[in-house]
Amino acid sequence: MRPLQCVLRAQRCLRRGPLASVSWLLLRTCRAHSSVPSSACPRPERQQEDGVWKDFSSRLATGPTFQDFLRSASVPPEKPSSPEVEDPPPYLTVDELSGRQRKVYLETYGCQMNVNDTEIAWSILQKSGYLRTSHLQEADVILLVTCSIREKAEQTIWNRLHQLKSLKSKRLRSRVPLRIGILGCMAERLKEEILNREKMVDILAGPDAYRDLPRLLAVAESGQQAANVLLSLDETYADVMPVQTNPSAASAFVSIMRGCDNMCSYCIVPFTRGRERSRPIASILEEVRKLSEQGLKEVTLLGQNVNSFRDNSEVHFNNAVSTNLSRGFSTNYKAKQGGLRFAHLLDQVSRIDPEMRIRFTSPHPKDFPDEVLQLIHERDNICKQIHLPAQSGSSRVLEAMRRGYSREAYVELIQHIRESIPGVSLSSDFIAGFCGETEEDHLQTVSLLREVQYNIGFLFAYSMRQKTRAYHRLKDNIPEEVKLRRLEELITVFREEATKANKSFVGCTQLVLVEGPSKRSAADLCGRNDGNLKVIFPDVEMEDVTDSGLRVRAQPGDYVLVKVRSSFCAFDLPSEMGVGLDNLRE
Predict the structure, then answer these.
(1) Closest C-alpha to 583, from 532, 511, 517
(2) Cα separation, 198 vs 154, whole angstroms
């Protein structure tokens, strides 16, 4: 390439790209060709071109240098905007990134992590100038925080989008255009399919892209679809203080880690939530302190694999003594070393406010070392309730699921937990009809339900997910009617055994954290005991223990002593939802 062509190339790039890129291209190209021998590039009009070259060289020598394209090292003058606000992208102004008082309507589907994600997303949007509305018709932006764990969960979102389609088409032209966004796991899993199938969807944001919501919405204002579904190796939103969607709630979720490395063969979570990473302990403790100062009485520590927490944010944390796995359990990944573990976090959180209940979900059975169990037993404010997902009672199926344990190891852990924490309440997850499950495998799951007698259970028919190991290596060869029949059998046995287990509470006095009015009767209140069982009791005046002469009505956030008189089932037999016998009556 001749020098003159180099100039023209740079000028064309200048019209297409950012100035810094143009300058780099121009300098590199010209230097490369300045060393080419003249014989390699004949020049019939050498004198004319030499003049052009000298003119260009002189302009280049007096022009900007590389340093002109770097940020100044000096402290920039203070701006009136908040220091937390990052510089806008070069194609958007600060005003375009602002919410400008537009109203956001948020709908949450799926697990507790999605509830927490909703609070994180709203915190980010609120800081950008958006307003919150609880009325769909008032909304300028509708965001659905989605779940992708089963086919039915995704179908619910597709159906909801069809309902919102008419709302968008009927939007008055006098109002700003309605924007609709899909957030969370379904956005991450389906990506382009959503944008291509539903043209009315304006934005997609995966679980690690909520910080980008203001930009995505600003791009959507120009009429374009916008998406960010990049997964991160380090995003934990540690510096984002979630804004509770229910300000009157007595409890809150605190996310302590994100993602999962277990790679169970049936599970989509590692592909929609990414690799496992933990928040720094300091940021978690600060959030819990603020919630305590706000008067909240219960905190649930959240994570896809919450008890595998490992804080490596400080170098000296890597010298921490490693904890062991539960006896008879293994992992699908290389053993990790160092870091502050879940027992350390649980200890520190429980010390912040002795009157604040501490729960955690969802754990993996492999990560219950003795120090965690001992801590739960010793601390009065750490709830004596453990969720212990089994998924199946068959060792053969557990191996196909890549759970890292056998039935025997699981039962031994159950016995050890009950010995370590007397009176502990247990809950679990089960999948009916996994790939290759035989009737004998199914009966082994039935027998595990009878043997353990869980207090609460979540049971589902298997739903194959793309990208999972089961999708690539196994066959979903159990007919749907067989899955549903097995599911109903599991539910029936679970209800029978949970009835027996929960009858042990009848006649006992339970400390109950009041949540609010009962959905079954306006004359009743409901709350939960230490074992996370729902307790329903009359909304009547009662004695205030702090003042024996005062009679008051219980309010959300109050602790009340309730004597249990009966227990009953909370759900009928569904086919596609988790069920649990978790209701006690005063």
Answers:
(1) 532
(2) 14
| Three-class DSSP category at 215 | helix
- Give the pair of three-digit tokens for residue 375: 């801590």
Instruction: Determine the Cα–Cα distance for residues 245 and 140; give it in Å rounded to an integer.
Output: 18
Could you give the 3-state DSSP secondary structure of residue 466?
Answer: coil
CA angle 8–11–14, rounded 5-degree value = 155
DSSP state of 304: T
Look at residue 91 in the predicted model and tell me its pLDDT.
76
Pick from 249, 250, 254, 252: which is nearest to 237 by CA?
254
Q: What is the pLDDT of residues 107-130, one digit of tens each?
A: 999 999 999 999 999 999 999 999
Dihedral in degrees, nearest 10, Cα atoms 366, 371, 372, 378 = 150
The three-class DSSP label of residue 328 is coil
From the CB of residue 227, how many other CB atoms can be counted at a distance below 10 Å?
22
- Three-state SS at 342: helix
Amino acid at 549: G
And the tokens for 258? 């994100």
CB 319, CB 338: distance < 8 Å: yes
Cα–Cα distance, 410 to 368 (Å, whole number): 11
Query: Using CA atoms, how far apart are residues 91 and 215, in angstroms rounded to an integer?
Result: 10
pLDDT digits (tens, 9 = 90+) for 517-532: 998 888 999 999 999 9
DSSP secondary structure code for residue 467 in this structure: T
